[in-house]
Each structure stands twice: as structure tokens, then as C-alpha cells.
Specification:
Length: 217
């Protein structure tokens, strides 16, 4: 029996992911420093208030650009399928770690797919609203009403993004083996077959049990 681990993420994909994660932390901390006076002390991490205002939009822009690298790599694997909709209807069984009656899924489960599209939407809102309120370059081209609306949308998108990332981290810890896949790149065959059976069969070219029976017959 072949026990060789399966490659889930190559070095470029892992580097891209962790670079986005680092930029997210930096953009988030600098954004919080500008969001409320009670959090302004965070600006000391970036050299003070003026530097925080200068760096925050560039950090956010870099985060968006590198996130697009993940989108280009993974968007095809994140389309919702019929199996995904059935999986979502049986999410209670998934939460109880019951395999019976839960359909097989591909490289990403429906929760991961919904998170992917939520992150992309939040990133787009942050980008366009950020351009409107970027005082040094673009805000002079917009009226005060547009700037106020963009500021509100920017804060809401950032809030949803932070919550989504917290869910992402929790899920990575909850499903043992997920976090190590992004650290080391490989997963065991048992893990892949248990959590992402369709993807497992795709990369190993292993037929489903019923197909193997029919071939023998």
C-alpha cells in the first residue's frame, strides 16, 4: 500500500498565503490605530501617527495584490457544486464528525469555498472604498457624501474580513492536519481521503470502491 504523503500546496502557494497573512496583520493593526482614538497607541508599531497613515493604504494595496495571486491559483477549485449544497444541508453531521450520509467533496469543502468568496468580496470593497478615502492621492476627487459612505463600507468590510479570518484560523486548528498542510505542503493519504475524498481520488487516480468491484466483475 502506498503511504507516501500527497502534495496539497507547493512552496509558491504556501509563501503567497503567509505573505498575505503577514500583510493582513500589519494592515489590520495600522487600520485599528486609525479607527478609534483608544487604539491609537498601535500607531507606535509603525513609527507614529503620520507614518501609520502613510503605510496603511500601501499595506492594504499589497495585501490585495498578493491575495489576487491566491485567487488566480484557487478560484477554479472554489465553485459550489451539487455535492457542496448537500454537504451544507447536512452540516450538523459534519460538526459531529459523522461520515454517514455526508457526500464526498473536492479539494475544498463548502465552508472553505464560502469563506474564499467572502474574503474576495471584502477585499474588493476594501480596495475601492480605500481608494475613495485615500487622502494623499484620490479623496479630493470625491464629494464628502461619497467619502463618508466609503469610510463606512471600509469599516464594515474590514470587520467582516477580520471575523472571516478568525473563522479560518479556528477551522484550521479544529480540523487536525489542515494547518500543517499550509506549513509543510503535504497531507497524509488517510487525511485526504477522510476530508476531501473526491480530490484524493483525483490526485491518486484511485477509483471509488463500487467502480473497483465492477471492474473485478
Amino acid at each position: 500500500m502506498n503511504d507516501k504523503p500527497i502534495l496539497r500546496y507547493n512552496a509558491n502557494e504556501r509563501s503567497n498565503h503567509w505573505l498575505v497573512a503577514i500583510l493582513f496583520i500589519l494592515a489590520g493593526l495600522s487600520g485599528l490605530a486609525l479607527f478609534h482614538p483608544a487604539l491609537f497607541w498601535l500607531s507606535h508599531l509603525f513609527g507614529g501617527g503620520p507614518w501609520t497613515r502613510i503605510l496603511h493604504p500601501f499595506l492594504g494595496l499589497a495585501m490585495f495584490v498578493f491575495f489576487l495571486g491566491l485567487v488566480v491559483r484557487f478560484w477554479r477549485a472554489n465553485f459550489i457544486s451539487g455535492n457542496d449544497r448537500l454537504w451544507l444541508r447536512r452540516i450538523d453531521r459534519v460538526m459531529r464528525n459523522e461520515e454517514q450520509g455526508v457526500p464526498s467533496i473536492g479539494k475544498y469543502n463548502p465552508g472553505q469555498k464560502l469563506l474564499f468568496w467572502t474574503l474576495l468580496l471584502c477585499m474588493l470593497v476594501l480596495l475601492f472604498s480605500g481608494v475613495v478615502i485615500w487622502r494623499a492621492w484620490f479623496s479630493q476627487y470625491f464629494g464628502i457624501g461619497s467619502i463618508r459612505l466609503a469610510t463606512l463600507l471600509h469599516a464594515l468590510a474590514a470587520f467582516v474580513l477580520v471575523l472571516s479570518v478568525i473563522v479560518h484560523i479556528y477551522a484550521g486548528i479544529w480540523i487536525k492536519g489542515s494547518a500543517s498542510a499550509m506549513l509543510h505542503g503535504r497531507v497524509s493519504r488517510a487525511w485526504a481521503k477522510k476530508h476531501h475524498e473526491l480530490w484524493y481520488r483525483e490526485v491518486t487516480r484511485e477509483d471509488p470502491p463500487d467502480s473497483q468491484i465492477s471492474k473485478k466483475g
